[in-house]
Design goal:
single chain, 300 residues, alpha+beta, Arc Repressor Mutant, subunit A, Beta-Lactamase, 12 helices, disordered N terminus, disordered C terminus
């Protein structure tokens, strides 16, 4: 007698034998990503793992919060922790290489402290710092972190994320670190709107550390912000004078990382947000229009 075998749908089998423990389910989801460049939607993850869609969504959210995964507009990908376990740096080496000569030029030209950082959850993660004699006066370090909502670097990158994504990253409450720190999500969203109106320029004066001021702009590709470049110094530093240099450096680094697509991506995003691509240089009159000064003398 001939034995008849049926081919079983792997997804159906997985649904029947769904792992009972959270660790097993998390492992199942991480295993669904077959490489550092893999991008999966929620539906892809549910289909590959056999987990119910609601269960997959809940675990994906937890993995994103813990930085095992990253959530982009085009789906989920491996996060910094997962990439780090494999000996990879998540593309940070390429970002450093693209930005290194530009950071050096900014620091030498202005005498201020130049930073390069990426957004990591609700924090900025510093990839590079060039400071000359001022380096010790700015409390940042390579490999260090700072809250995104109260740093110019963080605001420069958050401004180009969808508002819902910003809320998910920061949570319902944000911490004040000084009397100048933005402490409410609604106020932060207003500030991020102003960053977009200023063509991507983000400022902060004493929001993270008393006595320190900073101006930053994001490096952007077609999928959103990938890093940020900033200049920092004493709170009295005339940041409006160096702001165009920061924007130019961020744009040039973006074009190095994404040749042939940087300007188009910037223009598309800007039009979507109601802004325009940044010019190479700005006149004093243009800067005065971009920078609105409130009653306390802060850039808002």
């Amino acid at each position: 007698m001939t034995e008849v075998r049926t081919v079983e749908d792997p997804a159906a089998s997985a649904r029947r034998e769904s792992p009972p423990s959270m660790i097993e389910r998390m492992t199942l989801i991480l295993d669904a990503f077959n490489g550092p460049s893999a991008r999966l939607t929620l539906e892809d993850v549910a289909r590959r793992t056999g987990l119910p869609r609601s269960t997959a969504h809940r675990i994906l959210d937890q993995l994103v919060r813990q930085r095992w995964l990253a959530h982009h507009a085009f789906g989920y990908g491996l996060g910094r922790r997962a990439l780090g376990l494999g000996g990879r740096d998540g593309g940070h080496g390429k970002i450093r290489e693209a930005a290194a000569p530009l950071l050096h030029g900014l620091q030498v030209t202005t005498g201020l402290v130049a930073h390069l950082a990426v957004l990591d959850g609700a924090e900025v993660y510093y990839l590079d710092k060039l400071g000359g004699r001022l380096a010790t006066s700015v409390p940042s370090r390579v490999g260090g972190r700072a809250p995104a909502h109260c740093t110019a670097l963080g605001k420069a990158m958050l401004a180009w994320l969808e508002p819902e994504r910003v809320d998910a990253l920061l949570g319902p409450e944000i911490t004040r670190f000084t009397d100048r720190t933005i402490g409410e999500l609604g106020t932060l969203h207003q500030e991020l709107h102003r960053v977009r109106q200023r063509r991507g320029l983000a400022f902060e004066r004493g929001e993270s550390y008393p006595g320190i001021a900073c101006v930053a702009a994001a490096l952007r590709g077609a999928e959103g912000p990938v890093a940020g470049i900033s200049l920092a110094g004493d709170i009295r530093a005339p940041l409006e004078n160096v702001a165009p240099l920061v924007v130019t450096a961020a744009r040039e680094a973006s074009q190095i990382l994404f040749p042939g697509s940087g300007s188009a991506a910037s223009g598309t995003r800007a039009r979507r947000r109601g802004g325009a691509a940044a010019p190479a240089t700005w006149s004093p009159e243009t800067m005065n229009r971009l920078l609105a000064v409130d009653g306390r003398g802060d850039w808002m």
